[in-house]
TrEMBL record:
Positions of GTP binding: 199-206, 224-228, 246-249, 337-339
Protein family (similarity comment): Belongs to the TRAFAC class OBG-HflX-like GTPase superfamily. HflX GTPase family.
Species of provenance: candidate division WOR-3 bacterium JGI_Cruoil_03_51_56
The name this protein goes by in its record: GTPase HflX
InterPro entries: G_HFLX_dom, GTP-bd, GTP-bd_M, GTPase_HflX, GTPase_HflX_N, GTPase_HflX_N_sf, P-loop_NTPase
Alphabetical keyword list: Cytoplasm, GTP-binding, Magnesium, Metal-binding, Nucleotide-binding
Keyword Acyltransferase tagged: no
HAMAP family: GTPase_HflX
Record's subunit section: Monomer. Associates with the 50S ribosomal subunit.
GO molecular function: GTP binding; GTPase activity; metal ion binding; ribosome binding
UniProt-annotated location(s): Cytoplasm
Pfam families assigned: GTP-bdg_M, GTP-bdg_N, MMR_HSR1
Domain Hflx-type G residues, every copy: 193-359
Length: 423
């Protein structure tokens, strides 16, 4: 049976109240994704937060009453709670309490299927828990159907701190290995132009990915269904070799432990040559969510990349005013439906035009004997001329600036390694 969950948020003014109501709706979707049943949502307007319990004393009493009336199993706060606040609230209300960050961590744990995702989630969970283990015992952690306590890291809440610390060290080591593997994989793809889909969770990225690459990856109405990056060739109908990557979505208040431990996964975003920022055109909060994505991109270190805005799900927009408002606000954006395919050809041609702006011509000089390097150069773009001079191949290539930059780096490194071997 699903645990019965009560959602609580605090707004500092009547105006902020509406934002909070929307945020609680989102918290409701997150709760459902985690397997909970939302029985009630509450917003308290309060200018000054109570340091001990966030909400006031009166509210704590009210929550206790609601808890009994609605037979609530778990209380989820939209705000970040300190360990002391968590403890005080749990004692005052007599029920397990978690915050938004713990809930998001829980969903990540639920959706982590590969070794890489599992390690990253476990690390984030341990770091989160290490800083805020609450005082309540094992009996409490079983209430609430396990929401906020699940995951690969779940042995017991009260694992001794030293063992947690040892585990964290081991996980960090495993992550460094994964990071190195990803870097090696990317080096093998040095001569491919990298396009990465980014956007708020549930924006329609995976659906668009499937449409563009004819892949069959999982699409679902759950939040954070995609945790592991998927990469496939993207055919824009020219000689350029492009790969498209679909990866984890963003959300407001993404726990920073997750951003830190998902470094390997997010490196796909950081190392992208071009971003497609997908936003849901049916979402009334679309502008705010675009801002959240842009802020997160900045946090990840990927904010200054060439980016094309893509508004998705236009098959579900029945009010023309919505689209014209978005067209006015985002004049360079493309409008598509990943589901029906509308606008996808236009998206491809716009992408092609933007990518072509980065076309450059470069000269590579490689010893004739280095077949692997010569083949790397020849596959990195359009070969304009290719001649032999003094035992060296002089190849002129027209291709994308970031790709040719990477190929140049690879060649320099390989030649340097070789000269070190000789000397
Ligand atoms: N009507 C409609 N629904 C869509 C479209 N694209 C995605 N969806 C739905 O939106 C939800 C999230 O889609 P998904 O591609 O998994 O989003 P992601 O989290 O950004 O990868 C799913 O229920 C999809 O079926 C679209 O173009 N039209
Ligand atoms: Mg997805």
């Amino acid at each position: 049976m699903s645990p019965r969950v009560l959602l609580v948020g605090v707004a500092d003014s009547n105006r902020a109240r509406w934002e909070k109501v929307d945020s609680l709706d989102e918290l409701g979707s997150l709760t459902q994704t985690a397997g909970g049943d939302v029985v009630e949502k509450l917003v308290q307007v309060r200018q000054k937060l109570d340091p001990a319990t966030l909400v006031g004393k009166g509210m704590v009493g009210r929550l206790k009453k609601i808890r009994r009336e609605y037979r609530v199993d778990l209380l989820i706060f939209d705000e970040e709670l300190s360990p002391t606040q968590l403890r005080n609230l749990e004692e005052g209300i007599g029920i397990r309490v978690i915050d938004r960050a713990a809930l998001i961590l829980d969903i990540f744990a639920l959706h982590a299927h590969t070794a890489e995702a599992k390690i990253q989630v476990e690390l984030a969970q341990l770091e989160y828990r290490q800083s805020r283990l609450t005082g309540l015992g094992v009996e409490m952690s079983r209430l609430g159907g396990g929401i906020g306590t699940r995951g690969p890291g779940e042995t017991q809440l009260e694992v001794d701190r030293r063992r947690i610390q040892q585990r964290i060290v081991a996980l960090r080591r495993a992550l460094r290995r994964i990071d190195r593997e990803r870097t090696t994989q990317r080096r093998r793809r040095a001569n491919l132009f990298r396009v990465v889909l980014v956007g708020y969770t549930n924006a329609g990225k995976s659906t668009l990915f499937n449409r563009l690459t004819k892949a069959g990856i999982k699409v679902s109405d759950q939040l954070f269904a995609t945790l592991d990056p998927n990469t496939k060739a993207l055919d824009l109908g020219r000689y350029v070799r492009i790969v498209l990557t679909d990866t984890v979505g963003f959300i407001r208040s993404l726990p920073h432990q997750l951003i830190a431990s998902f470094r390997a996964t997010l490196s796909e975003v950081r190392e992208a040559d071009f971003l497609l920022h997908v936003a849901d055109s049916t979402d009334v909060q679309v502008d705010r969510r675009i801002d959240v994505v842009n802020d997160t991109l900045q946090e990840v270190g990927a904010n200054s990349k060439p980016t094309l805005m893509v508004f998705s799900k236009i098959d579900r927009v029945f009010d023309d005013a919505v689209l014209s408002r978005l067209r006015r606000g985002y004049s360079k954006a493309v409008f598509v439906s990943g589901r029906t395919g509308t606008g996808v050809e236009k998206l491809k041609s716009t992408m092609q035009d933007l990518i072509e702006l980065q076309m450059v011509t470069r000269v590579f000089t490689v010893p004739e004997s280095k077949w692997d390097l010569i083949s790397l150069v020849c596959r990195s773009g359009q070969v304009v001329t290719d001649e032999v001079r003094d035992g060296k191949r002089r190849i002129v290539v027209r291709g994308f600036q970031p790709v040719l930059g990477r190929v140049r780096k690879e060649i320099n490194q390989a030649l340097r390694r070789k000269s070190q071997l000789i000397s």
